[in-house]
């Protein structure tokens, strides 16, 4: 099983021809509310990829909180340990323009109320094959989660997004770090992915850097780096491609698949998701990933 310690956000998405400048008002075309948050997205991706998944985090006491919890329940994610914190849920205010560019404001809301782990959380983590972490909860609790998993012998997989400096104690408790190339560059100060991977291996034992349509790069202290190409597809919406990739990767690794095969399978999952609009709604089911992998 997989445990996600992470965020839930309601994505409030405005589609406009052109984003407004400061002080300007523009008329948009469409508005959508979509359940999201990196934590919840990874949980849904892993559940659809076939794992038993539990989510630790918090939704608010507003209407969004009800919908965010229901979305996870509907995806088959266990929400028994998902808290409901007094006040608003996390929200992401997203403006998408006609060129597919976006500008985003995230307000953590209830996510900020996840400040410590309970005994129940620890027991759940201790029974898992992997703990998935991102940086949309307070860094103190992300660090506590990673350290708890490490102590209990559970693999920790950290997506260092949104990019920010990592506490050394968090890095020290991370088994597999999965940045995209921008996050890798932000963490290391070098833009070449191979050089960034080498720098990151000084502090974590295994790294996967995702490279968008160019695939991904895996590096460990044991063997030379390997690149896995992404299936060539027509992307219509790359939102949450990275979360889909990590969710599927965790499932494959949790089942004991060797790294190259696990990466290829995760790449197929992510490629399926970018061909369909939406974030969690676009994530593929295990049968689809298997079918595409074997074709
Ligand atoms: P993020 O979504 O976090 O920015 P990336 O853009 O690197 O991360 O995408 C994560 C993974 O999703 C990539 O490693 C790749 O496997 C897959 N992916 C992303 N964009 C495409 C694309 N246009 N075509 C095929 N696969 C893609």
Description:
This protein has ten helices and 13 strands. By secondary structure, it is an alpha/beta fold. It has a single domain (2-294), classed as UDP-N-acetylmuramoyl-L-alanine:D-glutamate ligase (3-Layer(aba) Sandwich). The strands form two sheets. It has a nine-stranded mixed sheet, with helices on both faces. A four-stranded mixed sheet has the order 3-2-6-7. β6 and β7 (102-107) form a beta hairpin. The longest helix has 16 residues, at 259-274. It is globular, with a radius of gyration of 18 Å. The model has no long low-confidence stretch (mean pLDDT 96). It binds adenosine-5'-diphosphate. Residues 180, 210-213, 215-216, 230-231, 233, 235, 238, 241-242, 245, 267, 270-271, 274 line the site of adenosine-5'-diphosphate. Keywords: ATP-binding, Carbohydrate metabolism, Cytoplasm, Kinase, Magnesium, Metal-binding, Nucleotide-binding, Potassium, Transferase.
């Amino acid at each position: 099983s997989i445990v996600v310690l992470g965020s839930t956000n309601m994505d409030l998405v405005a589609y406009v021809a052109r984003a407004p400048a400061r002080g300007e008002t523009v008329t948009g075309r469409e508005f959508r509310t979509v359940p999201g948050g990196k934590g919840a997205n990874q949980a849904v991706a892993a559940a659809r990829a076939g794992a038993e998944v539990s989510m630790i985090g918090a939704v608010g006491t507003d209407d969004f909180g009800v919908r965010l919890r229901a979305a996870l329940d509907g995806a088959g994610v266990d929400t028994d340990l998902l808290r409901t914190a007094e006040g608003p849920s996390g929200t992401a205010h997203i403006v998408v323009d006609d060129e597919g560019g976006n500008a985003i404001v995230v307000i953590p809301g209830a996510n900020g109320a996840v400040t410590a782990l309970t005994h129940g959380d620890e027991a759940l983590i201790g029974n898992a094959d992997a703990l998935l972490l991102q940086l949309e909860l307070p860094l103190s609790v992300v660090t506590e989660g990673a350290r708890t998993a490490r102590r209990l012998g559970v693999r920790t997989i950290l997506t260092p997004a949104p990019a920010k400096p990592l506490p050394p104690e968090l890095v020290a408790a991370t088994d597999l770090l999965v940045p995209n190339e921008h996050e890798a560059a932000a963490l290391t100060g070098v833009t070449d992915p191979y050089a960034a991977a080498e720098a990151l291996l000084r502090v974590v034992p295994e790294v996967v850097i995702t490279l968008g349509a160019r695939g991904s790069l895996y590096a460990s202290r044991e063997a030379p780096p390997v690149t896995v190409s992404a299936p060539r597809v027509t992307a219509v919406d790359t939102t949450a491609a990275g979360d889909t990739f990590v969710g599927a990767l965790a499932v494959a690794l949790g089942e004991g698949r060797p790294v190259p095969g696990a990466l290829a399978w995760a790449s197929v999952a992510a490629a399926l998701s970018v061909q369909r609009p939406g974030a969690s709604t676009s994530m593929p089911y295990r049968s689809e990933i298997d079918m595409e992998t074997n074709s």
